[in-house]
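anyone seen this seq b4? input:
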Amino acid sequence: MKTMIPERLKKEFFIELFIFCIGIGTMALFFENNILVSIILLALCLIRLWLYHRKDDLFFFFSGALFGPVSEIILVSFGVWRYANPTFLGVPMWLPFAWGLATLMIKRFAEIFVKIEVKK
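predicted toks r here
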């Protein structure tokens, strides 16, 4: 049986995917300019939170923005990998924004997939 996905959920999915692609593209193309990447990712965070702000989004955003970079700082210090243009403790200054956005994207995709599953 084919599941019909509501247009609203499709739209939300593609908006998240679009924001993700802009973020990845920004990091890939402008990684040498940490300030520019930070500004663009911060703008994406604000746009993302403005479009879909739920009461627990800030908790998830700040959890990702804190624990993701802390994990990476530890791994970079052990030599697991390294960044091409680090600014603080071996990681770029924009990393918390990237982790915050990624955390919100994963959360949002999970919410969309659950809604699709419930509609079956």
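DSSP finds four helices and no strands in the chain. The first helix runs from residue 7 to 30. kinda curious what u guys think
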